[in-house]
Amino acid sequence: MTGQEYRDAARTWLRANAPAPAAGLEPAEQLRVAHEFQAALYEAGYAGITWPKEVGGQGLGTAEQQIFGEEAAEFELPSYPFMIGLGMCGPTLIDLGTPAQKQRYLRPMLSGEEIWCQLFSEPGAGSDVASLQTRAVRDGDAWVVNGQKVWTTNAQWADFGALLARTDPDRPKHAGITMLIVDMHAPGVTVRPLRDMSGRAPFNEVYFDDVRIPADGVIGEVNRGWQAAVTMLSHERVSIGGSRGPRSGPLEFAALVKLARRTGADRDPLARDRLADLYAHERALELLNARMRQEAAAGHPPGARGSVAKLAGALLLRRATETAGLLAGAGAVAWDPDDKQAAELAYGIKSAPASGIAGGTNEIQRGIIGERILGLPKEPQVDRDVPFRELKVGTQRV
Fold first, then answer.
1. CA distance 392 to 194
2. For domain 118-225, which CATH number applies: 1.10.10.10, 2.40.110.10, 3.40.50.720, 2.30.30.30?
3. Angle (nearest 5°) at CA 365 between 364 and 367
4. Res. 246: pLDDT tops 50
5. Which of 236, 286, 322, 390 is catalytic?
6. Catalytic annotation on 236?
7. Which residues touch 52 (CB under 8 Å, ≥6 apart)?
8. Which residue from 40, 63, 138, 304 lies 20 to 30 Å from 49 (Cα-Cα)?
């Protein structure tokens, strides 16, 4: 099939099967629609386009993935519940999982039967993830986990999670961590929503009280969870940096052009200049991500360059937010209760700052770029070789 034939087929399928926007539906109904659509994607061959065939993927190249992404961007698809699994956990399992783990978890992830979350951040370990204190202690044929995670996206829906836990506090903080697969429905797992300034609850805090995880639930190797975390964070940063959402999103270039025309700001030279600048940066990021996908398919994973895409995406969203405020004026802070477009724009503006934090802050990304790409000296780290139990970090300071 040629590229144009693949594009035509994808466009035809999406027009016939993409559900109506789910914004007005109740959360339970939104989740049902998302499950059904992901199952339809899988059956049609549009889920896991670049994943290996032996785990349920299509075994195609990045060209097909890019084509489908471009066509899908024209629609408001209900893919949000699956983005952590498909963008981060799944690729990490492909890289590091055992054959049994790949066979058990990847196909249900692609078909929408199971939702995944990522359990890294803690109240005392945010940007410094290696300071985490959630403990996993081996007890016979299981690990027993106790601790707390926070800012966990999609935990309220998740069936499984990729959990970082400390398995050896006598090693330095980066060395005694293990990544484990946790059943989010297991006894002892408690999920509580965290409501943000938008009034919605996209994040959660998760508690683990004597949660038992089978011994074969390790992703990668015991006490080498930091290496597994770096792998997942690399996938996460590429995923976040490359996800610009549907073109109907309130901060997308096309949506902002419509806003400018609706408010009359399209006649303002400053507004037109801002829109042109936004388009140029948005297109540059698209091309950067296309290049990294092609290089990954050729056997050259992005590594630290994923931080470039992540940082560029966060800065692009900041530009879009500033442009939206210029175009909407007072309408960005006060609107008629029945004006859904204005409400969605306000939600987009309020949600945008999180892009500079999720997946590692902008400052963290700049540090990675400086050290691992530009070859600048590392920042001083006096605690790197000290056993974790001797450190006063995070909540251990108290």
1. 27
2. 2.40.110.10
3. 65
4. no
5. 236
6. yes
7. 59, 94
8. 304
